[in-house]
Amino acid sequence: MLEPVDAAGLAAQERNRPGLEQALRLLESGEANVLVAAKRERLERALGELAALLASAQEQGWALVGLDCAGQPATAAAEASASVLASFARCERGSISERTKAALAAARAQGVRLGRPPQMSEYALERIRRERAAGKSLAAIADGLNADRIPTAQGGRRWYPATVRYTLKRTG
């Protein structure tokens, strides 16, 4: 028997993880014959589509094992159970997404600023305000900031007229 491929550390929500992809290649080539996860729910979250993984396991003749599951994955009842669990896992991911979106909308409605806070220098803010008060266009202000290599609020290198307008609107 070949060594099991350990998938216990899988916590990503996308399948394009190098370790997982390597494990799946080993399984597909026949160099490994089992994919092991400490908890099946972590594996379901990591892969998104447990049913597709179960189908691959059945087609290619390798086992999918969740260490927290008592059932034998090779039985018809265990496969049916895993399919039902995978369906509920998809449903739960959808519910989590809906709850998150609702909470973010409620926070926005209360005036909470979401996202990374800007780290713009006071010099840049004052310069933008001063040049706008002097009648310069948004494009001219952006060009001047770019020419002087003044970083944006998030540390970017390029100012745009829209960025200048947003900065003025946000800071008053």
Top keywords for this entry?
2 domains; mainly alpha; 6% strand; Rossmann fold; 172 residues; 3 strands; single chain
Which helices and strands appear, and what pairs or packs with what?
Blueprint: E1 5-6, H1 18-29, E2 34-37, H2 40-47, H3 50-60, E3 63-66, H4 76-109, H5 122-133, H6 138-147, H7 161-171
Helix pairs in contact: 6-7
pLDDT < 50 runs, ≥5 residues: 1-15
Number of helices in the DSSP assignment: 7
Note the main sheet: 3 strands, parallel
Number of domains: 2
Radius of gyration: 26 Å
Helix content: 55-70%
Looking at the structure, the CATH topology of the largest domain is Rossmann fold
CATH architecture of the largest domain: 3-Layer(aba) Sandwich
**How are the strands ordered across the major sheet?**
1-2-3
Protein model, in words:
This protein is mostly helical. 57% of the residues lie in helices and 6% in strands. Helix 6 packs across helix 7. It has a three-stranded parallel sheet with strand order 1-2-3. 19% of the residues are buried. The chain is built from seven helices and three strands. The protein has two domains: 5-109, Rossmann fold (3-Layer(aba) Sandwich), CATH 3.40.50; 122-171, no CATH class. The model is unreliable at 1-15 (pLDDT under 50). The chain is elongated, with a radius of gyration of 26 Å. The longest helix has 34 residues, at 76-109. It starts with a strand and ends with a helix.
